Amino acid sequence: MIRLSVNGKRRSYAGHPFKRLLDVLREDFRLTGSKEGCGEGECGACSVLIDGEPVNSCLIPVGQLEGAKIETVESLGTPEKLGRLQKAFLEHGGAQCGICTPGMLVAAEAHRRCGGSTKRQALCRALAGNLCRCTGYKHIIESVAAALSGKR
Ligand code: FES
Ligand code: FES
Predict the structure, then answer these.
(1) Strand, helix or coil for residue 6
(2) E strand or H helix at 143, and its extent?
(3) Exposed (0-12), middle (13-18) or buried (19+): which is 41, by Cβ within 10 Å?
(4) What is the Cβ-side half-sphere exposure of residue 108, based on CA atoms within 13 angstroms?
(5) pLDDT tens sequence across 55-79
(6) Any idea where the domains of the chain sit in the sequence?
C-alpha cells in the first residue's frame, strides 16, 4: 500500500507499484486534468508538482512516491472558481486544443512559487519543458505574464 497526499487529501494506492503516476491519477483517483502527450518525458503535458517540483508524471512509477505530496492542475482552481493562472489563460487565449494547458499551468505555478519573474526570458525558461503542438507560445507567455503581474 502506497500512501500519498494528492491536492491536500490523503490517498492510498494498493495496485502495481510500477504503474505510472499519470495513470494512477487519471484512472484510480479520477483526476483527469493531467494529460498524456508523448508518454516519454518530452512534452510536459503530464506535469504535476511532487513535493513542490514540476515533474513529468508519465515517467514516475507510483511505487517511488510513498509519503509524497502531489499537486495536480486540479489544485489550481475549479470550473466554478478558476485560479488566477487559469483565468489569465482563458482571457488571453493561452489554450487552443488544451492538451498542453494543464502542464503549462503547473509549470507556471512552479515558476510563481519561485518568485514569478515576468521577464520574457524567465518565463520562456520556466516553460521550456512544455511543448505546445498548436504552437500558441506567444499567448501562453502573455497569459502567464498577465497572471503573475496581476493584470488580466
Ligand atoms: S506525456 Fe509526459 S512528458 Fe509527455
Ligand atoms: S494548446 Fe494545443 S498543444 Fe498547446
Answers:
(1) strand
(2) helix 137-149
(3) middle
(4) 30
(5) 999 999 999 999 999 999 999 999 9
(6) 2-76, 84-149
Distance 100 CA to ligand 2 centre (A): 5
Q: How far apart are CA 25 and CA 80, in angstroms?
A: 22
SS3 for 110-140 is: HHHHCCCCCCHHHHHHHCCCCCCCCCCHHHH
Report yes or no: 28 and 72 within 8 Å, Cβ to Cβ.
no
Class of domain 2-76: alpha beta
- pTM higher than 0.85: yes
Question: Residue of the nearest CA to atom 1 in ligand 2?
Answer: 96
Ligand with smallest separation from the Cα of 102: 2
Ligand 1 atom with least separation from CA of 37:
1
Model confidence pLDDT, tens digit, residues 88-110: 999 999 999 999 999 999 999 99
The CATH code for residues 84-149 is: 1.10.150.120
Q: How far is the CA of 107 from the centre of ligand 1 (A)?
A: 13
Radius of gyration for the alpha carbons in the chain, expressed in angstroms and rounded: 15
Q: Separation of 145 CA from ligand 1 center, angstroms? A: 24
